[in-house]
Amino acid sequence: MKLVHREVGVKRAETATVIRRDRQILQGKPPAAAQEIAPSASETLGTRLEKSTRMTGLEPATSGVTGRCSNQLSYIPSSQGRHIFLAPRFAIVKRCGSRVGPDNGNGGAGGAARTGGSGCGIAFYILLGIAHTMSARELILVTGGAGFIGSHLVEALVARGDRVRVVDSLATGRRENLAGVEGRFEWLEGDLADFDVCTRAAAGVSAVLHQAAIPSVPRSVEDPLLSHASGPTATLHMLEAARRAGARRFVYAASSSAYGDAVELPKREAMLPRPLSPYAAGKLAGEHYVHVYAKTMGLDGVSLRYFNVFGPRQDPSSPYSGVISRFLRVMSAGERPVIFGDGGQTRDFTYVANVVAANLAALDATAALAGAVYNVGVGTRVGLIDLVDALNRALGTRLDPQFQPARAGDVRDSLADLTAIKAALGYTPLVDFEQGLRATVAAAQASSA
Ligand code: UD1
Q1: Which of 33, 88, 346, 389 could form a disulfide with 381 if both were Cys (CB 3.0 to 4.6 A apart)?
Q2: Cα(322) to centroid of ligand 1, in Å?
Q3: What parts of the chain have a pLDDT lower than 70?
Q4: Ligand 1 centroid to 421 CA: how many Å?
Q5: Res 319: pLDDT
Q6: 139-448 under CATH 3.20.20.60, yes or no
Q7: 0.90 surpassed by pTM
Q8: Domain ranges of the chain
Q9: Residue among 259, 279, 289, 351 flagged as catalytic
Q10: HEC profile for 155-189?
């Protein structure tokens, strides 16, 4: 089993190790264990993987890659916005002929510069500036970061050492979703329909992962104005605030609902969208804004069309909640789930770790993404009756579904073609439906125990 954290990046882990060692050298200290540098921020990736395993029920990868990460990502910068200095070790040692370390007695950066005389001092500061620029951690804004998907993204970003800011209105998100990373991110409560909130949220950020939404087809049918305010209006506000702040990339949580009743399967990005609900129309409008900002307004971006995401922390309590969270809750209580329609509708149910992996790939892509649209799914589809069967197996129950009329705006079938995102971002699903369902059931059982 591979976890998204396996993708956390050996490169970043190596950088973290070098930064830690070099900072110690600059401070005139011998390289020490991570705990001595930052006790509060010294949790290893191994520890995080163990926690994640407990939380999700997933086993971390047992390959050498994870072993490397667990050793090397022992230094995780806090989210307090401090800068980390990377010493140009080889330049100093070779050009100044003087070691910077415990023996020189000069301590930090100024001491290192003095050690080598004025010429070396200038070279040192130039190199230090370059190195600083390269090593300063980007500030990443996660909108809707207290929500189901957003909180998983925040965890992944914090785990790999990014500085993170969260903005959330708490309309559907919950602060408890971030309990595992408390103190390691900046927090801003507010509604993105208010442009001032967006401006404050975007100040100083390098990139935005825009997850905030009221993600419900039926709720949008009941209240299209609310759906528009939290959808395209908020997205436009956030794009404009990010552009003004000089951000380099905008990653947008788009939706497979944009395909609507297009009959062809699997759904390819080039197909003509046929949205059936205000929610879907709003998500599609957001894609167009992302494209316009990338092509015309100088803010690179990408739209990731999520296919029916599920996993731990998905809120089951609303009638608008995703079907897996709803069925899991009622069936765990021994009640029969309600299927709207005949149960023959299918979905490409996508475990949340896959969505996190896609976002990180989009964030890290070196080439411009130019407002492109990519599907994020698994590439398999499951019918609702099969979903009930799978949950019966996982829970050890034998509950038959009840049937009610189909919901307005509901689509029949949904399945992602992943060719484009594989080619552009190297994305492949990490967790399949069955694995994800087991992990979700295990997490729900653990949290209710
Ligand atoms: C749609 C979008 C998805 C979006 C989500 C937000 C598509 C293909 N997908 O998902 O991109 O993120 O809205 O909510 O349009 N159902 C029941 N019983 C229940 C709950 C749901 O039978 O108690 C049925 C629904 O009628 C639907 C299926 O389960 O046919 C999935 O519903 P849901 O989980 O709400 O997501 P979608 O509406 O498919």
Answers
A1: 346
A2: 6
A3: 1-136
A4: 23
A5: 79
A6: no
A7: no
A8: 1-76, 139-448
A9: 279
A10: HHHHHCCCEEEEEECCCCCCHHHHHHHCCCCEEEE
